[in-house]
Specification:
The protein is α+β, with helices and mostly antiparallel strands. It is built from 6 helices and 4 strands; from the N terminus they run H-H-H-H-H-E-E-E-H-E.
Length: 185
């Protein structure tokens, strides 16, 4: 059929094949054994790219060049990702969010800053029971540091008991050597 189209219409082989929808079949050796060995090496040595796989194959006595090794490596879909994205939100394994089932299971605390009409600034530490949405404490001051956080938590813990979970953000107020002594009282 392709020969007929080429001889009567004067088209190239490629164009004739496209018209007739008959594609060229390669007569090259598919090298199935080599591909299988390449897959074995890639699965046992996961971090190896095609260059290292090529070196191992050459040591074993296989006859192939770098370009052929790369082509077969790609056809077998053994490629590694060259670089990981900088922000890997989807890759991070997520810890299931803790849902409190009763009061005093989990507390949340955060700092809020504001200023008065005369321009003086102040901060408030708010501690909230996550289950009941009850404000357990609000500490107000111009300079609230780690010691203030510890004393507020200890006062509430004496009155209500310590929570199982405590949610905080990554603020500098919630880190430091003083915070390690929470709920000592």
């Amino acid at each position: 059929m392709v020969d007929y189209v080429i001889s009567h219409y004067g088209l190239t082989m490629r164009r004739a094949c496209r018209l007739v929808i008959q594609y060229y079949r390669s007569v090259k050796d598919p090298r199935r054994e080599l591909r299988a060995r390449m897959r074995e090496i890639a699965h046992t040595r996961v971090r190896y790219g095609y260059r290292r796989v090529l070196v191992l194959l050459l040591r074993e006595g296989w006859q192939l060049g770098r370009d052929q090794a790369y082509r077969l490596y790609c056809e077998e879909r053994l490629q590694l990702r060259s670089k990981l994205p900088k922000r890997r939100k989807m890759v991070v394994t997520r810890v299931q969010k803790i849902v409190p089932g009763k009061p005093n299971d989990a507390w949340s605390m955060d700092f809020v800053a504001d200023q008065l009409a005369d321009g003086s600034k102040f901060r408030t530490l708010t501690i909230v029971d996550v289950f009941t949405k009850e404000a357990l404490a609000i500490e107000v001051g111009q300079r609230l540091r780690g010691e203030h956080v510890v004393s507020a938590l200890n006062r509430i813990a004496v009155r209500r008991g310590a929570p199982r979970h405590l949610f905080v953000d990554n603020g500098s107020e919630f880190s430091g050597p003083v915070i390690n002594f929470v709920f000592e009282a």
